[in-house]
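Encode chain A's predicted structure.
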Amino acid sequence: MNHKSNGFSLVEVLVSLVILVIGLIGIFNLHLVAKRGSFESFQQTQASYYAIDIINRMKLNRSQLVGYAGTYAGNLSEPSQSCDVALNVGGGNAGITCTNVQTRAWDLYGWEQSMNGVGETKGTRSIGGLDTPTACIQVSGTGDVLVVMTWRGIRAVSDGAANAADFVKSCGTANKRRRAYSISTVII
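Encoded structure for chain A:
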């Protein structure tokens, strides 16, 4: 008796399903790795933006340059005077005149709030900004400025500031998830 079978046997179907599942698991894991990398890249871009933002604020308020030095992690209280630049806000006699000191206080408060993501919220939770940021600013008498941004990365790989200069190392909490971005410039 000669039996010819048309179609697939159960074993062939199971083997092909196993191969398909292994391929789908690989694609799914690749997707997760890509999302993590994308988020890490976004955080680094944000850190760069915030560092340049404070440098630009410092350039506009050069007389208060040394007053910008310090460590910032979201602890500043809101200044009593709201000012974006040291000039007459609102025009005429009814406007509010901000001093350079008041402008510096407002700059630091606004900058610190934005790096903590206060401008982007979902419910009561801040969702923008950096993850657990700490910023450090060093200013020398000659106008040399070093801005360091540190934040927490998604996974533990290495300490982003472990091999850096002492000032960069001292910014933020040392651990394998710390990421660091620093920029050095001269403001004259």
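The beta strands are 70-72, 88-89, 96-97, 121-122, 125-126, 134-139, 144-152, 178-186.
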